[in-house]
Specification:
With about 220 residues, the chain is an alpha/beta fold. It contains nine helices and eight strands. It has an eight-stranded parallel beta sheet with strand order 3-2-4-1-5-6-7-8, with helices on both faces. It has one domain: Rossmann fold. Helix 6 crosses helix 8. Strand 5, helix 6 and strand 6 form a beta-alpha-beta unit.
Length: about 220
Amino acid sequence: MFDYRRITLFAGHYGSGKTNIAVNWAAMLRQHEEKVMLADMDIVNPYYRAKDSKERMDALGIKLISSFFANSNVDLPSIPQEMYAIVDDRSWHPVLDIGGDDRGALALGRYAPKILEENDYEMLFVINRFRPLTRDAAGTMEVLREIEAACRIPFTAIVNNSNLGAETAPEDVLSSLSYAEDVSALSGLPIKMTTVSESLYPELSGAIPDLFPLELQRRPTE
């Protein structure tokens, strides 16, 4: 069981895998909390959306809030009014999927003052060593600083989600541990968890601390 705060925010560069993690984290929270909300704030034309998991969220009783233009070809920074429930109604446990890089994180800025004032949040930086702009700790730190500056909320911990998609082997995950430790050392942030697909979890569960299994999100057939 992982510790959690009232608000959990996942942010990272494009392709870091934060949406899959946000969906699975919301599902985990629902086992312990009655009112869980998944807020899709990824408004910058991503490949995958939290909204793609609407059927799963509905089945679990998780409220999903997303941009009016999710899953369309309209690229406008439109966020529904009900998104303010994140900060205005503290009976909810919201999980926020923040848009990739600093441009996507700008949408979070309007909620930052109240989130910081309440101070019951985790801002988790999702990293993936196998993505082009985050292959080393120095490049990853540049992304971290850009996102923090845009959203005005400091990160509190790191999620190591280094993977090669369906091609990921156990040794790929194991080889990423030193990279995650380097990012942790440079940033001063602890590593909250390492994520793996459910298929790899049994083999790695004894070898990696704080391992979090992911049911991989599938985009609905159009």
